[in-house]
Amino acid sequence: MTTAVHVQTVEGFGTVTVRPVDPDVDAPLLHGWVNEERARFWGMVGTTVEQVREIYAHLDSLTTHHGYLVSRDGEPVALLQTYDPEADRVSECYEVRPGDIGVHLFIAPGLAPEPGFTGRILTALVDFTLTDRTRIVIEPDAANEKAIARMVRAGFVLGPEVVLPEVDLPEVFIPEKRARLAFLSR
């Protein structure tokens, strides 16, 4: 089991723990999450457990991109990915500043509705991602109005709608994506 890289108690919510994804251990759990219809914007619907394991093993091999499993009081509740925008296709769509960090967040399916859940988990995740950075950039699918509205409520400032170019490498294929940039500064 991998070691936590961030532990934070959020008042009235619980203890949020962030640890690196362990591709071999976590692939079955993540596969269940990313294959639900609500995960279509994550782009992994239709993958097998082995494909999910391979994707996160590849991510784990990079120094610029990282995957994290987020738990609340020991229960997995989210998947967080961070990346250096200069090493990502998003850099073709905006002027990257020193101190920028890119973030993807996926809240686990099947959780009982809990008012304020995402906002509270974001409290800990923003603290974690801005530990040694000054600005978060996100680029949710432009059609994912729910995610965009949630990030605006969390204090993100909307940027332009952009088209992220296709990535076609031997180890990864990511299709072109219409995205909405948003930023949160420390």
UniProtKB/TrEMBL annotation:
This is Lysine N-acyltransferase MbtK. It comes from Streptomyces tanashiensis. Gene3D superfamilies: 3.40.630.30. Acyltransferase required for the direct transfer of medium- to long-chain fatty acyl moieties from a carrier protein (MbtL) on to the epsilon-amino group of lysine residue in the mycobactin core. SMART domains: AlcB (SM01006). Pathway: Siderophore biosynthesis; mycobactin biosynthesis. PANTHER family: LYSINE N-ACYLTRANSFERASE C17G9.06C-RELATED (PTHR31438). Residues 19-67 form the Acyltransferase MbtK/IucB-like conserved domain. Pfam families: Acetyltransf_8. Transmembrane segments: none annotated.
